[in-house]
Amino acid sequence: MKFDCIVVGGGHAGYEAALVSSRMGLNTLLLTLNLDTIAQLSCNPSMGGLGKSQLIFEVDRLGGEIGYATDLTGIGFKMLNTKKGPAVWSLRAQIDRKRYRENMRKTIMKQKNLSVKQEEATEIIVERRKAIGVRTRTHSQNPVEMEYFAKTIVVTTGTFLNGLVHIGLHHHSAGRMGELPSEELSNSLRNLGFELGRLKTGTSPRVDGKTIDFSQTTPQLPDPNPANFSYRTKDFNPPKVACYITHTNQKTQELILKNLDRSPLYQGVITGIGPRYCPSIEDKCVKFKEKESHQVFIEPDGLDTDEYYLNGLATSLPADVQVDMLHTIPGLEDVEIIRPGYGIEYDFVFPHQVYSSLETKRVKNLFLAGQILGTSGYEEASAQGIIAGINAGLRVKKHSPFILKRNESYIGVLIDDLVTQEILEPYRMFTSRVEHRLILRQDNASERLMKYGVKFGLVGKIYYEEIENIKTKVKSKLKELKGHRVTPDVVNPILEKHKSALITQPTPIFQILKRPEIKWEMLEPIAGLLEPEICTQIELHAKYDGYIKREHELVKKVKSLEGYKIPLEFDYLKVNGLSYEAREKLSKIRPLTIGQANRISGVRSADVTRLLVALKSRALIH
Ligand code: FAD
User: Fold this and answer.
1) Cβ(415)–Cβ(384) below 8 Å
2) pTM for this model (two decimals)
3) Which residues of 455-471 are buried (b: 16+ CB within 10 A; e: fewer)?
4) I need a surface site. Which of 98, 125, 144, 582 has the fewest CB within 10 A?
5) 120 CA: nearest ligand 1 atom
6) Could you give the C-alpha distances from 119 to 3, 123, 137, 140, 144, in angstroms and in order?
7) How crowded is the C-beta side of 279, counted as CA atoms within 13 Å?
């Protein structure tokens, strides 16, 4: 059977890739191990949060599904970081795990141009360094082997490649708890010459809510009038379910330290590297011994279940130790575990082997996305999935690839980091990784990215027109506010009430709004009501205009480096004066621009200057 695109894996990278490719008109096949676990949230039942919510907004504005599915199945939304500047405001949602899965499965099954098959991909079929198909096997008593052919292939197999689940010193092969691993596909990639590494991640126990004493915990309520992620969501009124907070203590610490001889992490059984920013509880107790207590979020798993996820307690300790550990924590003294926590080790493909389009350098028409490239997190996976899907579509249509830049999106930063940095631990997005975060906010994702969604036929023009309309309104309101002077007798009573310095002569409202302590709602009696989207933008312009302008100037400077292209086959060994480390890293990573070369750790400014000279002297710069 011949398709335009085959997507292997129905996780968060896979559903985005399959949906965009079919929505771009490609005849697409999604191959996945289990139809019932499409879009499974393998770890905590939540979406968004710091650095990650920006990714969801961006994927949504490009025409992806994660934001809309989150709005439809979220059961508690909270805007984080509102006391800080808008550059780091981040929306987080608690999700109904089962509904998220079911909703996505329905969307996929209904999608035009998209076929779905529950089969295991065992091999990528390659001819003359071009991917042409996938060999598969059914998981039945008499397995049937099949071959499917396509112009492009996107592999998004998450933690499944040679997956090994650990609970205590016992381990078994599995892609996730209760699911089979992908061993042959891992071998197929290795046989094609890809360099694979090994990483580790872990998850927390899930417990029965009927056995939690909530009176000993602190409830954390969602926002009463929450914001939503997707531009497609209208009349947003989701359920508002609380999370709860409790803490570990000295007893928890002692118990964990006493049982380290049964920890696969501390007995050398797990060799893969885990995420430093999201350590297991045993790691926290060993590495931060002086800290007496660690926070635990008790998160509901959905509306129709009493299952709760204990965020902050990821562990691979034996199940009996997990029970004893929980019983030391206030509110959990009598708790019953429904599913124990576990660790998982898996193979990943070092991401310097893909271009920024996510096509592999080694095999043409083969794209990789998600945890297989060393990232961790649903949002990171979905962001790569949409880019791989769009680029598969563009390849079939014989168009040039779509590459988002660092200065226009978090997605651009994520992918640029993957292709230029050495990935030694699972990569997750943080706002601190983004140098231009003041201009890459979740509130301006539409302005930045919706034009691409429209261009690829993934976002209706009507939505883009709405955005343009808001932009025009903001511009004219700003002009009006800069000209509209208010006199002291009118505004001083308001300023006095909010402990802001009084004015002595007529002053533009815009100037008054620049003050950090003054919000639009305070000026409403004299300046009038504004629609919420316009109000946020006006406030932002008033308070951050200077910083935003400076940021744009910086972007212009950096752009000049991005313009210098480096040929893929360039011989770095022939460049005089390059440091040994730079030669090694550049030859391995093969950056495509001087800008990318500049961001590789170990490549110094002096190396970049020498590289520029060498490229110019060979007249390779254009
Ligand atoms: P997945 O969501 O894993 O999806 C992979 C898909 O590929 C599945 O549908 C599977 O059926 C399919 N598949 C695999 N092999 C084949 C094959 N050969 N043929 C056909 N289909 C195949 N993220 C965090 O941000 N923080 C955490 O603390 C965290 N902890 C985690 C703990 C555990 C135990 C696990 C398993 C994951 C954890 N994650 C965590 C990661 C998060 O679940 C993933 O980053 C995210 O789901 C990755 O998305 P993906 O699409 O790349 O892969």
Assistant:
1) yes
2) 0.90
3) ebebbeeebbeebeebe
4) 144
5) 19
6) 16, 12, 6, 10, 9
7) 12
Measured between alpha carbons, how far is 215 from 295 in angstroms, rounded to an integer?
Answer: 17
Q: How far is the CA of 589 from the centre of ligand 1 (A)?
A: 26
Identity at 356, one-letter amino acid code: S
Neighbour tally for 300: CB within 10 Å = 23
Write out the two tokens for 258.
């006493």
- For residue range 20-71, what is the model confidence (pLDDT) as tens digits? 999 999 999 999 999 999 999 999 999 999 999 999 999 999 999 999 999 9
The whole-angstrom separation of Cα 558 and Cα 573 is 26
Q: Compute, in angstroms, the gap from residue 428 CA to the centroid of ligand 1.
A: 14
Tokens 């990232």 belong to which residue?
Answer: 375
Q: How far apart are CA 319 and CA 326, in angstroms?
A: 11
Nearest partner of 328 among 374, 296, 288, judged by Cα: 296
Q: Angle at which helices 445-455 and 461-483 pack, to 10 degrees? A: 150
CA distance 255 to 266: 15
Q: Take residue 368 and report the two structure tokens written for it.
A: 């990789």
Alpha carbon distance 549, 554 (integer Å): 9
Q: Ligand 1: distance of its center to the CA of 282 in Å?
A: 23
**Nearest atom (ligand 1) to Cα of 32:** 21
pLDDT digits (tens, 9 = 90+) for 499-531: 999 999 999 999 999 998 998 889 888 888 888
Enclosing H/E stretch for 161: none
